[in-house]
């Protein structure tokens, strides 16, 4: 059946001499993979619309097996991302993470909106660390391994102060901190940021101003948490780590 589907390319790979297999994250049917015939040909109309990060309206023959893209019209090329290596790195990270963690053909319009808003933020702003973290936390929830950030992961106590425990899967209150000698102590403000970023959509955040040391702490904790529970190696994160070291 031919369907009109708005979506964003999160992965593209060569298929045979002239074709591409593209993975699209869409609001209508979730993540799916489709064949784009002739997309490797430079003069093909499919070549431009099947690049990573492209948002487009696709006309797709949707099948239970491999779907086929009939045609597509670009909605947003996210040109600013393509022209900046750091923006490209952040966009590559969230697209790879989305591809790895989301099941196919599971509709999730709210998560799609957060994904689209995060790409838009990366495109229009210089600092993308916090929007990326906000999206990660929501994606981890969909994937089933989000940390507990609104209460103690052990006893449910909602009162500050907290420490973050990788082993226990989230926050530990003062009474339970003894369960993990490696738990990282958090200031109340940093613990509140974890709670805020996991629940609030990017559309409700205006300008984001956070101390560099707090950004670094959030990033280090989430990296360690993903390494424990994520299960997939991410090529794009290695490049982001290199960029952070250069900073």
For the structure shown, list the relevant keywords:
five-stranded mixed beta barrel; 247 residues; three-stranded antiparallel β-sheet; 23% strand; 8 helices
How would you summarize the topology of this molecule?
Layout: E1 2-15, E2 19-26, E3 30-36, H1 45-49, E4 55-61, E5 67-76, H2 79-82, H3 85-101, H4 109-124, H5 129-143, E6 162-165, E7 170-173, E8 184-185, H6 188-199, H7 212-229, H8 235-246
Parallel strand pairs: 3-5
Antiparallel strand pairs: 1-2, 1-4, 2-3, 4-5, 6-7, 6-8
Helix pairs in contact: 3-4, 3-5, 3-8, 4-5
Description of the structure:
With 247 residues, this protein is an alpha+beta fold. It contains eight helices and eight strands, in the order βββαββααααβββααα. The strands form two sheets. The chain has a five-stranded mixed β-barrel. The chain has a three-stranded antiparallel beta sheet with strand order 7-6-8, with no helix packed on it. A hairpin with a 3-residue loop joins strand 2 and strand 3 (30-36). The radius of gyration is 20 Å and the shape is elongated. The protein starts with a strand and ends with a helix.
Shape: elongated
Give the distance, in angstroms, between the N- and C-terminal Cα atoms: 50 Å
Range of strand content: 15-25%
Strand order of the largest sheet: 1-2-3-5-4
Q: Structural class from helices and strands?
A: alpha+beta
Largest sheet: 5 strands, mixed, barrel
* β-strand number: 8
Radius of gyration: 20 Å
